[in-house]
Design goal:
6 helices; 3-stranded antiparallel β-sheet
C-alpha cells in the first residue's frame, strides 16, 4: 500500500497542467524560476510554489549558482513519471501552445528576464 500512496501522490502533482508543462520543459534542459515566470505569465511566488511542491516529492532538484537557482528533473528512480513524460510533447510544442519563444539566454547577468 505504501508504494500505491507514493505513486498516487506523484500523479496528483502531475494532474496540474502548469506543473506537467514545467516537467515536460525540464525534459530537455534546466530552467530557472524567472524563465518560468515569463513562459507561464505567472508571478514568481506562484511559480516557486509549483516548484516547491515538485521538489518536496523529489521530482525536481535545484542547484544554486551564484544568485540564480536552476531546476532540473530528478526522475531516474521514478519510472511511473518517466512513462508519463515520454508521452508529453517537446518544449517547442509547449512553448508554441503558450504563444512563447525559447528564451535566448538562461538566467544570469545577460538574461533579459533575469536581471538582478
Amino acid at each position: 500500500m505504501q508504494q500505491l500512496d507514493y505513486v498516487a501522490d506523484h500523479l496528483k502533482l502531475l494532474g496540474d497542467k502548469t506543473r506537467l508543462s514545467m516537467l515536460s520543459l525540464l525534459k530537455e534542459r534546466e530552467w530557472c524560476v524567472y524563465e518560468f515566470v515569463d513562459i507561464f505569465d505567472m508571478s514568481q511566488p506562484a511559480i516557486s510554489q509549483h516548484l516547491r511542491k515538485l521538489k518536496s516529492q523529489g521530482i525536481v532538484k535545484e542547484e544554486r549558482r551564484s544568485q540564480w537557482v536552476y531546476y532540473s528533473l530528478n526522475v531516474d528512480d521514478k519510472p511511473h513519471i518517466q512513462v508519463v513524460l515520454e508521452c508529453m510533447p517537446d518544449s517547442n510544442y509547449i512553448l508554441k501552445w503558450l504563444n512563447k519563444e525559447e528564451p535566448t539566454a538562461s538566467c544570469g547577468p545577460d538574461s533579459p528576464t533575469c536581471s538582478s
